[in-house]
Amino acid sequence: MRAAQVVTIALCCALAGAGEARGGDGRVVVALGDSLTAGFGVPEEASYPSRLQARLNREGYAYTVVNAGVSGDTTAGGVRRIRWLLRHEPKIVILELGANDGLRGLPLDEIYSNLEKIIVTCQEEGIRVLLAGMKVPPNYGEHYSRGFEDVFDRLARRYALPFIPFFLEGVAAKKGFTQGDGIHPEPEGYAVVTETVWRHLKPLLEK
Question: Is the pLDDT of residue 60 over 80?
C-alpha cells in the first residue's frame, strides 16, 4: 500500500471517529502534527491527544480532540491538509509541525512560509492557533539550529500566538522518557508533553 493511501485512510478514520464523538454542539480542538502528535510507537491511549482528551473530560470541558498527526509529515503536508481538517470547525488548532523539515535541513524560509500559511488559514476562519516550538540537533550547524528555533518565535510574535517554546521540554533525550531513537516519547514522556500542552491550552478554553 502506498504511503499516500495510508495517510488518506488514517485521516478518514480520524475524521469519522471524531465526528461521532463530537455530537451536535461540542467544541473541537484539532491536534495537527507529525509522529509526535500521532503517537508513534505507543498505544493510542498513550498519545498526547488522547491524554489531552481525558484531561478535558476530567476538568469538565466539552471539547473533542481530533488527532490529526501523521508520521513523517512536514510543514508542506500540513498546508495540504489544513483546509480538509477545518471541516471539523475547530475552535483551536494545536500546530506541531516542523521537526521533520528541520531533520532534513529544509530551507528555513520555506518552513516559515508553510507554517505561516497554516496560521493565516486558521486565523481567517476565527480559529485560535497554539503554536508548538521545536528544536533540532546541530547536524547542519549552529546557525541553522538557531535559525530553526527562531522560526517559531518569530511566527508567535508576528501573529500574537499562544506559544509553547519547546514541545518536548523535559522529555527530549531524557532516559526513560524517550524511545530508543531518542526522539519519540515513551508513554511517560507523553504524560509530560500533555502537561506542557495543557498549561498553554487551558487559558484558551471555554467552559
Answer: yes
Number of domains the chain contains: 1
Active site residue 181: yes
Do the beta carbons of residue 120 and residue 79 sit within 8 Å?
A: no
In a domain, 111, yes or no: yes
35 is catalytic: yes
pTM value is 0.88
Domain residues for the domain of 158 are 25-204
Pick the catalytic residue from 35, 47, 50, 71.
Answer: 35
Q: Which of 34, 88, 101, 184 is catalytic?
A: 184
Q: For the residues 101-127, what does the mean pLDDT come to? A: 98
Report the distance separating Cα 94 and Cα 201, nearest Å.
Answer: 9
pLDDT tens per residue across span 1-14: 333 333 433 444 44
CATH number at residue 114: 3.40.50.1110
CA 77 to CA 70: how far, in whole Å?
9
Catalytic residue check, 184: yes
